[in-house]
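Fold this sequence, please.
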Amino acid sequence: MSKRKMMNTLIDWHASRKQKCLLIKGARKVGKTDIVRTFGKEHYKSFIEINFEAHPEFKDIFSASLSVSDLQKEMSLRIPDIHFIPNDTLILLDEIEFCPQARTSLKFWAEDDRFDVIATGSLLGLNHKEVSSYPVGYEQQIEMHPLDFEEFLWAIGIQDTDSIKEYFDRKQQLPDALHETLMKYLREYMAVGGMPEVVNTFIKTGNYNEIQSVQEQIVTAYLDDISKYADQTDKPKARNCYLSIPKQLARESRKFKYSLVSHGGRSSQYTNSLDWLKDAGLIHFCTNVSTPQFPLPAYANDEQFKVYLDDIGLLISMYGYQIKQAIIEDTLTGAAKGGIYHSRQSTTTEPCISCG
């Protein structure tokens, strides 16, 4: 598994969790399960994994009493060779959105405090499935995203990124040779993106056709999730908004245009659908501000915003293979170049606000 910054977050939580379970949320396929699995096997004597999507029968474990003692008994009945070692066991409740009662159980695991519990879930399911009782005060929530550029460099074997950061910290110009090398890697990152499956395909094969195929499969899976989770009236609207993003960013426009979603489209038709996509972790907004002055939200124009995908590689794949080729060869021109490069800057965990 590629080195991820999330590992440091998990180590810090383990050191000072203060009777709280951890909930890692994010879009599908960003690497939530793999990072917890690696963490569990490296830092605990006993690691127990329960995946509610792969094994729906495990939901029965949480169908009655949620006391930790009863949960231990139910788990030992259904999962062979598991061991509960107090203060040295990590339990992964994976795809927890498929078992709302397991989400409720986090309170009881936290109160018991003998075993560490991490839950992972897709924002689609977590935001759009009801839970009978949320474990308020007993879970720490963090959101995980695709690999950023530095993590991508680590994945392809460039480990000494601290020396590169020093130039930025000192606001010094990079040496020409280093600049050219980093720009080459940056164009690769834009074409590949940060979805772990895609990055692994790139490392193993170096084949951009195979990369494109994996990216298209992920986009299709996201569209299927929209059809599965969105309200009946929002399904076509959310899908059309999502599919319009490449077209939106290819235009010389300062804001998202509803008319590019459908002829005569208006904000009243699509605002809820865009909010739904944002809650699902599939997109994020970049809002225009009138003045580059803190606090920026005070100068934000909520009517002027652009919309970006959470992963630059998926965006490039939606333009088609020729755009991927143009980016790698650095021959891309026109309005699309500005939209794509700004998208690369906007794929971040922080809110995006731009001046215009």
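The chain is about 50% helix and 15% strand. The beta strands are 21-26, 46-51, 89-94, 116-122, 139-143, 283-289, 300-309, 352-355.
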